[in-house]
Amino acid sequence: MTEADAHMDFDLELEPDDLDEEAPEAPIGDPCLVVDDLHVVYRVVGSRARKEAEKGAEVREAQTKPSFVKRLVTASRQHTGGVSEVHAVRGISFTVRHGESVGIVGINGSGKSTLLRAIAGLMPPSSGSVHVSGEPSLLGVNAALMPQLTGERNIMIGGLALGLTPKQVEERFDEVVEFAGIGDFVYLPMRTYSSGMAARLRFAISSSASPDILMIDEALATGDAAFKARSKARIEDVRQNAGTVFLVSHSISTVEAMCTRVLWVHQGKLVMDGPTHEVAERYKDYVRSLRPVGRKGGKGGKGGGRAGGRNGKGARKVGVGGATGS
Ligand SMILES: Nc1ncnc2c1ncn2[C@@H]1O[C@H](COP(=O)(O)OP(=O)(O)OP(=O)(O)O)[C@@H](O)[C@H]1O
Taking every annotated instance into account, which residue ranges of this chain make up the domain ABC transporter (predicted)? Predict the structure, then answer.
């Protein structure tokens, strides 16, 4: 797959709901999250998995010498391809303060979800570290809820994981179901849900406890206009209470409407970090440059005119060389 193909589901179109919207300012407080030279490496077994992984990140053969016992055991198995390592996050560092809403953008396979999961504590760093102040009870929307259990049971488990008491979960149950818009499906196993329903339920659970850090991975793309409006209001609530929001989205207009700061990740590295309008404009230019000749970049064209300093703070360009396909 070429890089031009890889970005194709990135949506530069402005959503009607988001037109001319910018994330409102909120008081910015002390640092609440420090990510220091973070590396995340996946180990991939078998050639098919390796092919999948090669889409975006650096892949290399794992430097492992199998133990004597392992060599004996695998000698009797059919060879399925070696063990590879996918270096999905490569030396990312940044600091986030209370009250910031941070968008993470990048083409497919660039490492956004892996970074989010590592920040949420769902993925152990291979090296480097993530320091979180306050409640470490982060339940990212990618947190593994259990597909074989009903939505009802998952709301309870997710609520408890966020630090709520059983009584508090019960009190918030109706609100979570209504927010997610899943109706009576809540009494069916989650494996019967569409991916959109599951994403909306995870978002509703993870935002129900006013977490210190709210992580959102694509959930906003899965709802209708009313769900988006509810989500926006909830994100603002979290920020106004000096919480921090992380948002991974393929919709640049959603990031522009909801975030005060954007991190641009490419091939596992942070290539730009700064105020939303600056990073979004540069990122849109980059995505347009990837479009094959003859394909109109008109979607993004509409969104290109919203430059103009909001707070005068400059973006930190960490090394855009990576974004040109290094
Ligand atoms: N469980 C896994 N095992 C092995 N490799 C993985 C795994 N999950 C992700 N990867 C690889 O790590 C790299 C980063 O993936 P990640 O999902 O973080 O990217 P992304 O930017 O969120 O992508 P997308 O926009 O397509 O969702 C990719 O090369 C991907 O193939």
Answer: 70-292
